[in-house]
């Protein structure tokens, strides 16, 4: 998806990059094609509209349009706006002075369990003490998967099987990590094939029990615009602090 969008935008912008004096008509025609490319790539229409509006506001200046390098200026503005839209700054996890928790949430098949292990390894490699908690008490296979991944990356795993509630496993896992002076405890929760009240009620209970430092939603990048709706549903119920695209 990103490769296709990149090719389209490169082609569109290339057509204007070597032009000198530009008119508003030139700008409008180019931005119309940019907007179309974004929409065809399943970019949310609000994001596409905001993107092209911001570019137009930055380039619609008589002095700029009459300059012999006007086309190059449009290219630069578009490039900068892309970086801004995609998130130009690197943002680290929020860290309190003592024990921190990350609640990992998402739908089935999003890569949540694998991402939990990858995040744990990343934090471990940065010199921090990390533990994993298997809070998907609905699927023994999920606990087994996280156990295998934890062994592979050398991370301690807390699990209590499937006969206890997800909230209790989360609380006990949090306390276990706290007693071992872990900097981070990452809690892998159960996913569903769709957002439902049962899932959200369980997550709300866990959230109230441990008051996590971070709540990260893991989303398959190929989900497209539907991921916005999924994120909104989760955010409305438990308050997300970030997203991970897989």
UniProtKB/TrEMBL annotation:
Residues 1-86 form the Signal recognition particle SRP54 helical bundle domain. SMART domains: AAA (SM00382), SRP54 (SM00962), SRP54_N (SM00963). InterPro entries: AAA+_ATPase, P-loop_NTPase, Signal_recog_particl_SRP54_hlx, SRP/SRP_N, SRP54, SRP54_GTPase_dom, SRP54_N_sf. Residues 99-246 form the SRP54-type proteins GTP-binding domain. Residues 98-245 form the AAA+ ATPase domain. It is found in: Cytoplasm. Keywords: GTP-binding, Nucleotide-binding. Its main location: cytoplasm. GO terms for cellular component: signal recognition particle. One of its GO terms (molecular function) is GTP binding. One of its GO terms (biological process) is SRP-dependent cotranslational protein targeting to membrane. This is SRP54-type proteins GTP-binding domain-containing protein. The lineage of its organism: unclassified sequences, metagenomes, ecological metagenomes.
